[in-house]
Amino acid sequence: MKILINGIQSNLRFSSAHIIPGHSSCGFIHGHSYFVDVEIEGERAGEFEFVVDFKDVKGYTKELCNTLDHRLLIPIFNDLIEFKEFNPSEDSIDELVNSKVARFKIAGKGYSVPSEDCVFLELPYTSAEELSKYFAEKLASKLAEKYDNLTSVSVCVNEGIGQGAVYTKSLVE
Ligand SMILES: [Zn+2]
């Protein structure tokens, strides 16, 4: 059986800025009001014969939304982002998180942003595609701590109304 949670109606939203380096229109800093739909498939189980408790799914998803809300999202594994004092293939991400300022260049343009205004993500892009994968994997591992009856977790990250990307994380071997 499958359960569905609608991000707009359940307030699973966040508003963030990002850049898609190298893209002709999305290569500039801009923002989206994102919302996150969740679909979970599994056997009904436990005292109440739930697939999963809605409260858990909404709670975990909201926590993830809150970590990204009102920040500039920076994909540290993007090939076009050159950090001044940080090397993503050698240094710990904590160095960036704990630094005062993140200094980087994209195609010759220089950026200097307070680190506390940013969320550094171990991703190549902060596209809807990558963010849906990020959410699905985080949510699946969190749910797997409590549930053993689930077969998949799908997340649709929507960049506003009318466009989103879905990623399905399987929980079966
Ligand atoms: Zn965008």
UniProtKB/TrEMBL annotation:
Gene3D superfamilies named in the record: 6-pyruvoyl tetrahydropterin synthase/QueD
- For the protein in the UniProt heading, the enzyme class is lyase
Q: Which GO terms describe its molecular function?
A: 6-carboxytetrahydropterin synthase activity; metal ion binding
Keywords in alphabetical order: Lyase, Metal-binding, Zinc
- Entry EC no(s): 4.1.2.50
Co-factor requirement: Zn(2+)
Q: Pfam families recorded for this chain?
A: PTPS
Superkingdom of source: Archaea
Q: Which InterPro entries match?
A: 6-PTP_synth/QueD (IPR007115), 6-PTP_synth/QueD_sf (IPR038418)
* PANTHER family found in the cross-reference section: 6-PYRUVOYL TETRAHYDROBIOPTERIN SYNTHASE, PYRUVOYL TETRAHYDROBIOPTERIN SYNTHASE
Q: What is this protein called?
A: 6-carboxy-5,6,7,8-tetrahydropterin synthase
Organism, per UniProt? Methanobrevibacter woesei
